[in-house]
Amino acid sequence: MNSNFSSDQNSVQYVIGDQAIKQAARYLNHYHSIFILIDENTEKYCLNILEKNVPDLKVNGYIKVPSGESEKNLERAAFIWKKLTTMDAKRDSLLINLGGGVITDMGGFCAGTFKRGIDFINIPTTLLAQVDAAIGAKTGINFMNIKNQIGLFYDPKAVIVDPVFLRTLDQKYWQSGFAEIIKYALIMDRELWKMLNMRNYSEIDDWDKIISRSAKDKIDIVRYDKMEKGIRKNLNFGHTIGLAFESLFLKRNIKITHGQAIAAGMICETWISSKMTELECTNVEEIIKMIDVNFDRLELSEKDVPEIMSIMKQDKKIRDGLFRFSLLRRLGKAVHDIVVEPELVEQSLSFYINRKNCN
Amino acid sequence: MNSNFSSDQNSVQYVIGDQAIKQAARYLNHYHSIFILIDENTEKYCLNILEKNVPDLKVNGYIKVPSGESEKNLERAAFIWKKLTTMDAKRDSLLINLGGGVITDMGGFCAGTFKRGIDFINIPTTLLAQVDAAIGAKTGINFMNIKNQIGLFYDPKAVIVDPVFLRTLDQKYWQSGFAEIIKYALIMDRELWKMLNMRNYSEIDDWDKIISRSAKDKIDIVRYDKMEKGIRKNLNFGHTIGLAFESLFLKRNIKITHGQAIAAGMICETWISSKMTELECTNVEEIIKMIDVNFDRLELSEKDVPEIMSIMKQDKKIRDGLFRFSLLRRLGKAVHDIVVEPELVEQSLSFYINRKNCN
Description:
2 copies of one chain form a homodimer. By secondary structure, chain A is α/β, with parallel strands linked by helices. Chain A folds into 2 domains: 164 residues, Rossmann fold; 183 residues, Dehydroquinate synthase-like, alpha domain. The longest helix of chain A is centred in the last third of the chain and has 19 residues. At the A-B interface, helix 3, strand 7 and strand 8 of A face helix 3, strand 7 and strand 8 of B.
């Protein structure tokens, strides 16, 4: 397929596209031992795909954790460290993370801190992980109900993105990853926006092209600014408010996907963009229409606003006590570090909850 | 004092020597908030010294943990993360580690992983931390009775080494740090060996010179090889076996200091050097005499040998399943990555336990 490519940047190897998995063998040599982190889903649906396509793979042990965002916690991380220890992993062992964002985030964190850092490879198996979580060195676990409160920047040796793993994926996982794809279109890739063409994700038949394009957008940004000093902050569009939604529902034990939360956050932050960075109201309406075509609104009311504001104050992106947003200047162009008054954030929540018009 | 100096390398600032603490204020600007990690000893003896010498220091919160190597664990790390969270620490907050190696190791680990990394400063208050633990980016906690099993390489913004903090120090802490000083002399600094002059640590009256020289030796090594790809491995002299001793006694709940363990490890590895790297037996006898002048032998018997060997196999420095030692070529010169057969390691333990002669 045309979208297949591999690249080397800062020693992270990316292999993306159809049949990418067949190239995994290249990155598995010279290790003392190899361990695979899985959950019950990837054990069932993905492990056989990996082992069939990489017949020489010698696995010294499997580490299985339950799936789900609520499992991305310190207890599970300790379990992974413990398994690595008892299975005699060394500094020159390799951990393969086979799964979605929970697996790649938590596995990366555990690899990055086990014996002060062992190598790991991400093989993302969900749309969200393929276009986002598995790329870019951010690892972590949730702590005290705060997303990724504990973690580190730690590069995988390789990231292998192969759509073959998505075949068995449940609809909600497609939807969840789709929010980040919309985000890439909005912040940096007008061409991608045209490809999406106001479609609902279930109508899309050219996933391979869309996934490759999105993954490359993320790689491009991370290449220039891994440590998030500047342009990488643009990726936070929709996330300052979106992650607060996600934390809120996590605390309330109501399951929503990351994509649902970010989609909602993007609506709020698109509206803020019209107030702060001159995004035109016609664009606001167009963007919100595309999001609403793909995502139901979250069940929120005005009563939830104070709690959401309080969660946002815990955000890692807050500096000097001020809210700094990544916002849209226009469709396909984001800017970062825009200071936004809390009142405007509250108004954006009200805009979202009450389905107001842009003006 | 002549030994006072400050240097900049890879953005870590070192201020070492008499009155160094007065320069701490320089590194405390532009932070959203400042937190200090202490234990009950540094709260009692060191906090007032810090606050008296840095009158402008504004502290937003204290995090107090119990002292002791056995406290350098995941539960305490979680406690520190929790305190940072509840005291509203941000990405642009600063953590000051005021204490010995437990505080600087664990505080560095918590800072390096909180919100994917916040700044920290080490103000070591024990001899061991001043000449070793606080310098060189290695952070970590113990896990499953294995020393520093979980951690990361993460640079402090500054390390401030001031002998003023040592005044209140108990004798055993002087002794503990002294083992590392002997090590620097043996692996790289024959001039320092002459300064030590076969003295017992209690007879030493020129500490400031000796501390500055030792700290600079460590800084020099870390400057060239922070990630321990080559020359930094020389610092492991005495540690491959010494850390196994330390783990053994930790498991048995018998308190020994890090220095006692390393001193014992150095005797074993000095003997191995005579077999593997041509260290002369006259040097072996001289080195062991100096160590025995300063450290009682550990209570070990031949029966302990299998357990020690088993602990060593968990060591982070083991690669490809082989023991690789840093050994002495001669007094003042070490070499690393020397493969040593397990049998020779066992013989060195027997050499130590039975106080055999070099030949």
